[in-house]
Specification:
Shape: globular
Bound molecules: pyridoxal-5'-phosphate
Order of helices and strands: EEEHEEEHHEEEHEEEHEEEEHE
Largest sheet: 9 strands, antiparallel
Radius of gyration: 20 Å
């Protein structure tokens, strides 16, 4: 095998040895299959291709200082996938099957798990798609669940750093009663143009307000938002936000650290009052926010006055990473060991 340059991995796709597949046919899920083929052979009338019957997840495996392999909160991903399945009428995959598939694919690709010192990790991508042929708009009768992995580099190569974001009003990621709370590809298709506008203008990502009133904070691109002030961790409550497992974990850690936690609508103007703010998700854990520009209203909310991440964000980031890599105890039982 060619040597992998662990220190210079990006967030791209690298071929690994195996993926795990599970087929849903005749009303039931089959056995997990280990597969070395990278491609899928599916019917051209599969519902995932036409009507968006597609769900995905994202989680990571980490190699600890002790050499052990840890996967962060796979049960939570399994439950979120089940919620997505209910949302777009796909059969739910049992939690045990999901976790077993994750364990199997990680174990089979053990040589692709980056060493502890690299700060890199193994990204795990579960996918559930409607494969049954259908031309009328109906849910499929056959489904495929696939999990593949790819090694990814540390998100912050030059150290934990802040980024600018821009409020985009001309496109919505998800409707108030749409599919925003489900992890489906359609939400990403809806976000591509806004994301390109933001990137082309030099921002890390687009920033969404609620689709109905354009008054409250929704999501920070494909990440959840949180703000910090007066020893309180504040994150939006909305019917179009994807429930981030990272955010849920940070809320718990903030509480453990003696902070107050609030989940409520956050009006745009409140951005002015935050001492710190961040975008959170599996990829970066926390991506601290430098400022948020509202170009149409000629406003700029400067959050990191000195351009640096704040102390609370840094503490939360370090604490969560320490649990993921096994450097510190895991009091909430979030980690699944792969042996
Ligand atoms: C996946 C995702 C997140 C982050 O969720 P995590 O479970 O923390 O990785 C946030 N927002 C959107 C839109 C997502 O798809």
């Amino acid at each position: 095998m060619k040597d992998i340059d662990w220190a210079n991995l990006s967030f791209g796709y690298m071929k690994t040895d195996y993926n795990v597949r599970c087929y849903y046919r005749d009303g039931k899920w089959g056995e997990l299959e280990l597969c070395s083929e990278e491609t899928l052979n599916i019917h051209m009338a599969a519902t995932c291709l036409h009507y968006g019957q597609e769900a995905f997840e994202g989680l990571k495996a980490y190699r600890g200082k002790d050499g052990k392999i840890r996967v962060f909160r796979p049960q939570a991903n399994a439950e979120r996938l089940q919620s997505t399945c209910r949302g777009i009428l796909m059969p739910e995959l049992p939690t045990e099957t999901f976790c077993e598939a994750v364990r199997k694919v990680v174990k089979a690709n053990e040589r692709f798990i980056p060493p502890y010192e690299s700060g890199a990790s193994l990204y795990i991508r579960p996918l559930l798609i409607g494969t049954g042929a259908q031309v009328g708009v109906h849910p499929a009768n056959e489904y495929l669940f696939v999990v593949f992995v790819t090694p990814v580099g540390p998100y912050f190569k030059g150290g934990f750093a802040t980024n600018p974001y821009v409020i985009i009003r001309q496109f919505d990621r998800a409707a108030p009663l749409g599919t925003g709370t489900y992890k489906v590809g359609g939400n990403y298709a809806a976000s591509l143009r806004a994301n390109k506008i933001a990137h082309d203008a030099g921002y890390a990502s687009e920033f969404y307000l609620d689709a109905k009133e354009k008054k409250y904070i929704d999501e920070c691109g494909a990440a959840n938002f949180f703000g910090i002030k007066d020893n309180t961790y504040i994150t939006p409550l909305s019917t179009s936000i994807l429930p981030s497992i990272t955010n849920r974990s940070l809320m718990q850690l903030a509480e453990d650290m003696g902070m107050k936690v609030e989940r409520r609508p956050i009006p745009e103007e409140e951005l002015e009052t935050f001492e710190e703010a961040g975008a959170c998700g599996t990829a970066a854990v926390i991506s601290p926010i430098e400022r948020i520009d509202d170009l149409e209203n000629h406003k700029s909310y400067i959050i990191a006055k000195d351009g640096k991440p704040g102390p609370v964000s840094e503490k939360l980031y370090n604490r969560l990473r320490a649990i993921q890599y096994g450097d510190e105890p895991d009091p909430h039982g979030w980690v699944m060991l792969v042996e």
